[in-house]
Amino acid sequence: TTTTTTTRPTTTTTTTTTPSPLACLEDRQLRDYSFVIFHDLAARADIASVLADLDIATYFIPDDRAFGELPFGMLSFLRAESNRAYLRSILLYHIANGAFPSLTNGQTLTTVSFLLLEITVADRKTFVQHKTVEAGPVVASNAVCYVVDEVLFPPSAPTTKAPTTTRAPVTTRRTTTTTTTT
Q1: CA–CA dist 140, 145 (Å, integer)
Q2: Residue whose C-alpha is closest to residue 44's, from 3, 107, 90, 100
Q3: Which of 75, 72, 146 is nearest to 107 (CA)?
Q4: Distance in angstroms (rounded) separating the CA atoms of residues 113 and 118
Q5: What is the pLDDT of residues 10-52, one digit of tens each?
Q6: Judging by beta carbons within 10 Å of its beta carbon (0-12, 13-18, 19+), is residue 120 exposed, middle or buried?
């Protein structure tokens, strides 16, 4: 009796996924902060392709409270489809090339948009572009995240206030001067 066994070649496919750079925002250290607005704006600005191309980066992320403190109408302005390029430039200004788990006074970081961020350390507080770093660093395999108390606007941004379509009423005060001579 002869037995013939035929084996088929098998192919094993291994898929490696790189963790999202913004996964560091889910860290327990940042549980007191909310980043819903940042995630929404990042999706609107379509910065995922830029983030995917980075090996490692440092993020200075404003939380929802920081976005809530923008001038009236600014958040709506940033969300408008017609302002997508402007929004993208603002968000990319929050991302520096490389890992910086330690920030020092006088340090200068280059953003992914090739602009500079100046770090200041004074009175045990750290500032980026004169905005307070509230939390961090949270270090992940491909990112370092900090929370900042205000939205950073690049120097090339034309304004930090949303343009208004209507003007506020102007009130004038009429002053009467009486001169008496004796």
Answers
A1: 8
A2: 90
A3: 146
A4: 15
A5: 555 444 445 566 677 777 778 888 899 999 999 999 988 888 8
A6: middle
